[in-house]
Amino acid sequence: MKIVLIHGQNHKGSSYHIGKMLAEQFSENEINEFFLPKDLEHFCMGCYACITDEEKCPFYAEKKKIMDEVEKADLLIFTTPTYCLRASAPMKAFIDLTFTYWMSHRPRKCMFSKRAVVISTAAGAGMKSATKDIQNTLFYWGVPYIKEYGIAVQAMSWEQVSDKKKARIKQDIEKLENKISNKRNVYVGFKTKFMFGIMRMMQKKGLGSSPEDKEYWKENGWLDKKRPWDK
Ligand SMILES: Cc1cc2nc3c(=O)[nH]c(=O)nc-3n(C[C@H](O)[C@H](O)[C@H](O)COP(=O)(O)O)c2cc1C
């Protein structure tokens, strides 16, 4: 199993350790990790160059290194500390910089069969809204199986997390690994199909963002009968 971890932080704190713990639970795995902002030190400038040609994004080369691995992965694990009740700023920058992967632009066929887990820790509150930012993105990428794990650790570092809490996290992560491993087939649900249908109508009617986006949909056969979840 190919696993890609995307950390919304450079440091190795509680969120990082929980993500790593989950990845290491899977046997026979190949793990690739990216740290933000270290591996993508930019913000979207809103130039819209990507809308006509993704390669024209000024940060295309760095993005490609990450997204090539994301596309090859079976399981995506995102980790982020909860900052002011949301995902970290570098994680948000990553989300913005990959917005052409959304169903409203150029979704990738490979996304419609992936699994993903979004992990966040907070001192006390806000993990749900922090993971939601990333869960939304994954939904719009077309990922059909998304799990979330948020926990209040009452700590500023992994070392400060109590042994009792660490034992509970370990148990939770083992259960999560079991759930994911036992789910042999992943199906695209109604909500994704419905959203894809809306985006398809938009492209068909020429209401998309660019003629290039429409051409992409056409080339994939999605304006006709083909769908990205077809086997
Ligand atoms: C800038 C900043 C904002 C934070 N905002 C929150 C918050 O909204 N809610 C909360 O409970 N903890 C908050 N915290 C605490 C962290 O979420 C908490 O320590 C978390 O476990 C850190 O994860 P890490 O060890 O992976 O860095 C904040 C910490 C920082 C540095």
Structure explained in plain terms:
The chain has 231 residues and is α/β, with parallel strands linked by helices. It has a single domain (2-187), classed as Rossmann fold. Helix content is 42%, strand content 15%. The chain has helices at residues 14-25, 49-52, 60-72, 89-97, 127-141, 163-182, 190-204, 211-219; strands at residues 2-7, 30-35, 75-81, 115-122, 145-152. The chain has a five-stranded parallel sheet, sandwiched between helices. The longest helix has 20 residues, at 163-182. Bound molecules: flavin mononucleotide.
Quick structural gist:
The chain has 231 residues and is an alpha/beta fold. The chain has helices at 14-25, 49-52, 60-72, 89-97, 127-141, 163-182, 190-204, 211-219; strands at residues 2-7, 30-35, 75-81, 115-122, 145-152.
